[in-house]
Amino acid sequence: MGKKKKQEKKSKTLLRVVTLVLGLGFAGSTLAIALASVFSQNNSTASNPQTTEDPALAEKQMQMQVEGYKK
Q1: What is the pLDDT of residue 28?
Q2: Are 31 and 22 in contact (CB under 8 A)?
Q3: What is the full per-residue pLDDT of the chain (71 aa) written as tens digits?
Q4: How far is 68 from 71, CA to CA, in rounded Å?
Q5: Under a CB-based contact definition with an 8 Å cutoff, are residues 52 and 58 in contact?
Q6: How many angstroms separate the first and last alpha carbons of the chain?
Q7: What is the DSSP letter of 48?
Q8: Which pLDDT score is estimated for 67?
Q9: Angstrom distance (rounded) from CA 41 to CA 44
Q10: What angle do CA 46, 59, 38 make, to 5 degrees?
Q11: SS3 breakdown of the chain: % helix, strand, coil, rounded to 5?
């Protein structure tokens, strides 16, 4: 019976290690996705400033965007 207990102990230890590795991998990937979305939102808002004071220019830009969406 001594061998059976050792084998059960090894199995439990292996199961704990695998569970820990998979859990850390899941948490890491979730964190990476969250950080990527935060940084991509910062880049898109920084590269597209909406501070046009000329109403005609703003209207033209909006028309170009509408045409782009239609295509």
Answers
A1: 95
A2: no
A3: 577 888 889 999 999 999 999 999 999 999 999 999 888 877 665 555 555 567 888 888 888 888 888 87
A4: 5
A5: yes
A6: 74
A7: S
A8: 85
A9: 5
A10: 20
A11: 85, 0, 15
